[in-house]
Amino acid sequence: MKKIITIMCVLTTSICMLCSCGTSNKKNSAKQPTKETIENSDNIQNESASDDNDSNKDNSNENESLTDNDYLYIYDDLLFNTYKFIVGMNEETEPSDDQVGIFEALRGEAPESALLKAGYCIKDLSGDGIPELLIFQIDENDSDSYIGSRLLAAYTYKDNAPLNIFVGTSRNRYYLFDDNTIFNEGSNGAAYTIFGTYNLSKDGSELVTKDFYFTSPINDDYSNIGFFHNTNGDLDISKSKEYEGSEDDFWKVSTDLSAKITSYEVAPFEVFHAGPDDVVDTKSLPVSGVFIEDTTIDINLCHQFVADTSGNEVQIVLSASERITNFQFNSLEYIETSDNESVDFLMTPMYSLDELTSDKPLVVTLTFFGTIPSYGISYTDANGTERKFFLEVSGMDGSLMITEY
Fold it and tell me: Hey, what CATH class is 279-404 in?
C-alpha cells in the first residue's frame, strides 16, 4: 500500500522523534511511567540535600526499568506549545524568556522551513534518572536524519513541571560533550569573551561550574585586555585568577574544548506529535476516517469530492456511525491565538452535505501538505453539538487521524 512520499518521510522521522539523544532506529518502550512514579522521583530529588547518596540510589531503583524515551510524554505540553510558537512566529512575536533562542535562530523563516531547523531529544544529563529535554538548532538535514549541536534551550522536570535550565543564543552558545559536560561560549565585543564547562546539579535544575575563562579590560583600559580563569562562573576579576599561560595558550584552551563538541540526532518539530493522552481514537468519533486502500468499499456507492489534484493526492473515506447533519469538508489555515495555548484555524468550506449517513460515506481526494493541517471537517452530531476537526497523518504509523480542536 503506497500512500505518498510525504507520509513515508513522516514515518521515517517519527522514529527519531521517539528516540533519546544520539540514538536512532529505537522505538519508544511500551511501558509509561505513571504520575505517581514521577512524583515519587521528584520527592526523592527534593530530599537529596539531606541524603544525596541514598536518594539517588532509591531514585535509580524506582526507575531502573524505564528508559529516557518513557519520559518523553512529560514534556508533551511544552513541546506542543513550542511547536505552536514556531508555526505562529512573526516579526511582532514577543517570545518568552525560554523561547528567545528559538526565536533568534528561526526568525524570518517560513513555518515549514522553521519546523525543519529546530529539533528536540531527551537525555539524562544530571544522572538523577529523569532525562532533560534538549532543543537544538538543526545543522544537517538529509531527510533521513536531523543533526544538531547548538542548544537553543534545555529543560528538566522538577516539582511536577518542566523547568528551564538555560537558553542558548548567538552571543551565548551552549553545546554538549560526550560525557554530558555542557560547554558554553559567548562574546560581547572584542574585549569581552567567555567560555567554560559545566555539569548539571544533582536535580538537574542549574548549572554547576567546572572551569570558567573570560577576557576583560583591566582597570577599564580597553588597550589592556586581561585573561582570567575561575571555577565559580563569576565575571568579577577580583574573584578570579589571571590566566598563567600566554594569550595563545588561552585561546588554545577554547579551541581544544570546542573540538569536543558532539552532534546529536534529533527529531525536527515538523514531526512533533502529541502524546497518547492527546490522541483521539477516530473509531470512537461519530465520523471516522481511513485511507481508501485500507477498505473494500465500492467508491461508486459513496459521495465523492476532489479537494486538490497536486499529483501526490490520496483518497480517504469518511464514514458516519450516527446521524450527522450540517457536514462540511473545509480547507484550513492555521492562525495564531491570543492566549498561545489553544489551536485554531481559519476555516473555509469546500464541500457540504445536509446529512452524512452510515450507508453512504464520503470519499475525498486530497494531498497532505507538510505537517500543518490543510484540511478538516465540521458537523453537528446527534446531540446537536457543533464540532470541528483537522485531518492529519499519524507520525506513529501513517494512519489517518481526525483531531478535534
Answer: mainly beta
The three cell numbers locating residue 201: 546539579
CA distance 237 to 215: 9
- Binned at pLDDT 50, 70 and 90, residue 193 comes out as very high
Confidence category of residue 338, pLDDT binned at 50, 70, 90: low
Task: Report pLDDT for 57.
Answer: 44
Q: How far are the Cα atoms of 237, 241, 378 from residue 385, in angstroms, in the given order?
A: 67, 71, 11
State the first-to-last Cα distance of the chain, in angstroms, to the nearest integer: 30
Domain chopping of the chain, boundaries: 5-176+267-271, 187-258, 279-404
Inter-residue contact 203 to 155 (CB < 8 Å): no
Question: What cell does 229 get?
Answer: 580563569
Rg for the chain, CA atoms, rounded: 25
Contact 181, 197 (CB under 8 A): yes
CB 354 within 8 A of CB 254: no
pLDDT of residue 66: 52
C-alpha span between 119 and 219 (Å, rounded)? 43
C-alpha cell read off for 235: 565575571
pTM recorded for the entire structure = 0.60
For 148, the grid coordinates are 544538531
